[in-house]
Please model this.
Amino acid sequence: MSQAPNPTDFIPLRPVEFEILLVLTGGESHGYAIIKESENRWAGATRIGTGTLYRALRRLLSAGLVRPSDRRPAPESDDQRRRYYTITPWGREVAVAEANRLAAQVETARTRALLSGANPAGGGS
Model:
């Protein structure tokens, strides 16, 4: 009998994969909307290329972290060529594990004064 997979078995995620999961935690989306939301969050400092996006989506689909969505917007506001994606419960578990991993790294960076406003470890006020 094989043991159930652990979300930590899938981390670290590639940054683009984590970004896609972050976008999809906000709701179903299609490729172009994923790119635009990511660009807005990063104020244009980072852009996901179309090819990069769809390669990452294929990996996420294959791993069961996202799936094609069955729901579509109203026909008058939809383009039938668009494919919509949604995060799976398993994808959410993996995203949580990745967020916790990254939070631990950020905390270490904070304690070592790598972030602005941080005091060196053991430093006074």
User: Anything to note?
Assistant: The chain has a mean pLDDT of 87. Strands lie at 29-30, 66-68, 84-87. The helical segments are 15-24, 31-41, 50-62, 89-111.
